[in-house]
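step 4 of 6: structure.
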Amino acid sequence: MTRADRPTEADTLISLADVRAETPTGFPLTPSQRRVWALAQIGNAALAGQPAVELSFDGPLDTATLRAALDRLAAAHPALRLRFRQYAGGRVMQSLDAAAVLPLGIVDLSDLDCVEADAEFARLLAGDAQFDLETDLPARALLTRNGMRWRFALSVHPIVCDAAALRTLAGDLMAFYAAVEAGTPAHAPADALPWLEPRGSEDAALAYWRTVLAQEHADAALPSVFRREARAGGARRDVSLVLSLAEADAARASADACGVPLSRALLAAFTILLSRYGGHDHLKLGAALDPRGEAAGVLGRNEDVLPVKVQLASGLTFRDAVARVSDALEAARAHHVAFETLAQEFWENNEENGSGFLPSVHVHRPAPPEPVTTPRGVTMACRERPQARPDADLVLTTQEAADGTLAATFTFAADLLDARLCARALGHFRRILAAAADPDILLRDIQIVAPEDLAALSAPYADDTPADPRPVHALIAAHARAEPGTPAIFHGDAVWTRGEVERFANRLAHHLIASGAGPERCVAVALRRSPEAIGAILAVLKAGAAFIPVEPDHPARRNDHILADAGVALVLTTSALRGKIQPAADTLVIELDRIDLSGLPDTDPACPIGDRQLAYVIYTSGSTGAPKGVAVEHGPLSRHCQATARVYGMDETSRELPFLPFSSDGGHERWMVPLMLGGSIVLPDKPLWTPEETFAAMRRHGVNNASFPTTYVQQLAEWADATGDAPPVRLYSFGGEGMAQATFDLFSRALKAEWLINGYGPTETIMTPMVWKVRAGTSFEGMYAPIGRAVGGRRIYVLDRDLNPAPVGVTGELYIGGDGVARGYVGRSAATAERFVPDPFDPDGGRLYASGDLARWREDGAVEFVGRVDHQVKLRGFRIEPGEIEAALRTLPGVSECAVLLRHDTGQPALVGYVVAGWGTAGDRARTDGAELRRALARMLPEHMVPSAVVVLDRFPLNANSKLDRAALPAPALAPLDIVPPATPLETALCAIWREVLGLPAVGVRQNFFEVGGNSMAALRVLGRIKQARPDAVVAIADLFNHQTIRALAAAIESGAGAGGGQMIHLRSTGTRPMLYCFPGLLVSTREYVKLVDHLGPDQPATGFICYSLAEDKSREVSVTEITARYADLVRTHSKGQPCFFLGWSWGGLLAYEAARMLGEDIDLKLIGMIDVCDMDTDFAIGAIPRFGPGERDELELRVRAWAARTPMAARWQELLEAMDPLAYDQFLRFVGNSPEGLPDDGPDIGSREHTFWVLIDNALIFRRHRMLPHDAPIQPWAAADSLNRGLNLIDWRQLSRRAAPAEIIEGTTHLHIIGAPAFHARFARRLDEAMGPLTRAAE
Amino acid sequence: MMQSGGSPEGGQQEVVIDRHGRHSLWPQGRALPAGWTRAGFAGSRAACLDHIGQVWRDQRPLAPTEAGHDPR
């Protein structure tokens, strides 16, 4: 098959005479040129840039002088005189046309006004940029005249130039103009093209890169904002700033001090920036420059992107960093390999990331040449036409201007990187350069976040109310004295007034003081949540002592540890609970129901309380190691509660339902705050209420604030959603766990609240140091609900390992400081010193608590929780953040809560996912299936992130503080394989065949063929065995794809419902959208489309076809037209005139196109997606004459004959060899000679190398004869970036259809993997939606 | 992987004290944060923590006016 040169309807077969059978001459394209050519081929010429030199002429311009100057320019630079020619099979050669004259178009625009003339100039220039390299020279000039104004531009095709070339051309042209005017004789024409000379072996350089890139490193990049769907748009944006002359000169001085050119210092600053933004020290990024150095330069396409692999460390100086970057760059130049070659060599199937080989690239552009004025008064000046390379996710272009200033521009993939983040990062680049004015500054001392930005980001909720100096219990007591009769606590049917609580607490306080309670001494309160417990806690505080809550129902081990660890001398409990507490022998235990307080005064003991006096000790949940007692002082506690009240907007009308347990500090905040304001609380009378009980209590008591553990919110919201019966509440608050987006949305929708507060707080920073307060209905991006800002006098910092602030959007560790940090861990000063570190931002000296949580600042300054520092796991060398897997799990239907662990008790370390089935009916929940979820994850995540098992639980185990108890999650039961025995003779026979073909010890009739190791080749073998065993069975290969279990297949065969020779495979038979017909490529079945079909969703039906090479009734003498006719008939019958889509991948694209052409108006085809469809390459293209060395052809022929005589598929090879014409036979010999593996003889089984080879050659012979005719089908092509790097012969569909769009390029993928690439899925889905647009409108 | 609480690369640390007698760690060679002074002990992170465990026995505030008085 060849390009549609002069096609005629009658001539679908083509004779040799029709094509160019010349021997190619000249230079082959360089790898960089191949990519430029391929981009143009698929309609993306602009991606290679549209370079042009633009000059302005002031004064008496002489066009003859200009013409002569242009001739000298062409003579001096042979690249401008290259001619290009494409030969059969897509091979392109270039050769020098010694006599070529650069075209100069002169257009007089004098009858237009200035603006119109400029517009016309731009239009003409855009036209000049469109080259047809097979006919045009790669450069042409344009001169327009508008009165006395001349504008000139020399457009140059990017295949022969780079940015440096443009500067050279501009300078030379001005000089030549002056020289011609002065009558200086011209130099002899140059004709050397060293950059096109074949290069030596790259093996040594590639070996170098294999060693270097095998070392641990990360791609330097800014954090990407969106995931998965990220590349749907493909748009690019840019942000710029200009460094003033002073700033630019400082950078130059710094570069001088480091002994490098400015460009190196800028590259180093960029590397430092990306190191800070990515959190990696071992980095790889790209530098675009001429690897041979411009000095060596003969003008051409010399610029290449070189990998710079560098290791930084925060203890290095800027000078050190520059030296390392500079060394890395020198090493890259010394081992230069074309970027395209490196990208192929080091391509990895990184679907998740979807980036190219070097996602971040720096380009430096020196200032343009100076203006020139000739003796006759013509002043020429170069006008800037800066162009950024568009071929990386992020490109930093630094451009020096003639006035000494320096422009820095980020050009970036708009769907992948947030524009605000890029703009800020560019500002940080400027700050790094400013800091580098001292080249000996340590990298860790470079403050990239400006102090004023840090002040804003770290700031708490605005609050300028002065704090009341009184402690919590004194504020509560004041309300009791003011209005003792007001209800304070509702508990079951009981109501305690303020006075009752106060008198009870006062009497008990006197008793405690008499029993030895006092400052800095701890009293354990071992009581269930009750008014008495609150009274007891107040009594402890009034006595000047500190309380320690002990949950009587918690494990005795934990409680024993608490009492012993804190040295508790006094325990308050009841006779009923006494048995649960085992204090040391000398501990005084007070049973509240066995003491008589009636004789004690009910007045406040009025003990003085110091600001830093101990108020309570609360033990951490102890997820790692023994629980530690966190000591909290009165002053910070009281100020925290007062500030919290203001953030919550509470007052004496507040009535709160506090649901959090008393064993957590948050549980105490939620009763202290309302009572401190004179409000009241409704205390649950059981440890747990059903949602119904909760809502009933809230309604009965008119609750207007309610606080719940995050884990309980889920059930509450589900119940409210199901019944629509939530009471109106002013504010809900929740905390304890990250709240997933789906839960938050449900919560926000189902509960009728005005305000929602997500609280966050380690015990070490007192209750709830951070909250995110939003109106119900607020939405957020990201995994978990934001945790907001600080409360009270605190400051929040997201810091890197050097305690430097992380920029917005960059993950770091969360630190909490200021007023509102605990004293420390009781009796563990080393642990205190380790976690409470000096606060480098507090001028008064303070401490920051290192939370161990990963977080990042959002654009609005709110903090987003990312995960635990210590949850990150390493498995088989991969660093995995379980939170990412959890986020993927949460997107699956039926999943409500989930967790992912790395378990070590599963034989070998394995990731295990845990899921609580989501909302919906009991039936929905029962249907949530771990194996199904795991399969869904396998389609979404890279293989190393897919859990080995997903366990579905009724509920999660919770620890003492209502948090998920990860340690208590069960190891997955190694479920015995679901082996259902066969029930019929046919099933028995099929089981035996499966076992044999798949090599399995046992199979069940409900197992899925493709999940137990089956593939299309195995399916064919199964089919063969079935036909041997049951010659009369009506069964076809399609049946094995359509009925994937033995039971289903047996039923189809028994009922005679099998396809019986049919070709169609139902990838998804339901859905209302137009059917998507997927045409198969060579050796492609349809399994390859499963991920795509999954992505397109349940409403998109899809049908595949068995590929011809797998068809049982294939014959030798068949044409593409005949093959296609089968599919076309099926589509015609099946689609019944309804709208449909086609998809063709690889050679399947030819079938899809041909089918569309054959069907014409018979079907309503909305779009054909062409996925990396290549034309026949030089191996077998008609007209591509193979070359042999002396005697080589004869030697190859002997080899082929000897092999063809003895190989297992000898007969079929004979048939094939005989069918070849002389050229095809020579091509085959050449192909054999080029193939490093040698001739295979392991046939004839399907899947053997020999069979695959035979199919390839057979197809080549079929397809090479095919010729495509124009047909205006709606076509959207896609190309894999790797195919462009290889310069594959991608088809230019615009040559065939006027309704074909330019191809979209999918980065980071190859011809084979593009079909599974998420970035491709996203774009394909978008184009289908667009193609459906008119349909949707018609339906309205 | 990141270690919680700063201090990358297992570099040398030193023990520092604030005016309330609270002890902590700081990477050696970096400017001290305001309000903190050197305690005169440096070493690995573990060594510094060991040292602190021995010398900082009472985490209560130094000034009696700040905290309540223990009647014991």
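step 5 of 6: annotate
 - The longest strand of chain A covers residues 847-857.
 - The longest helix of chain A spans residues 1318-1339.
step 6 of 6: archive
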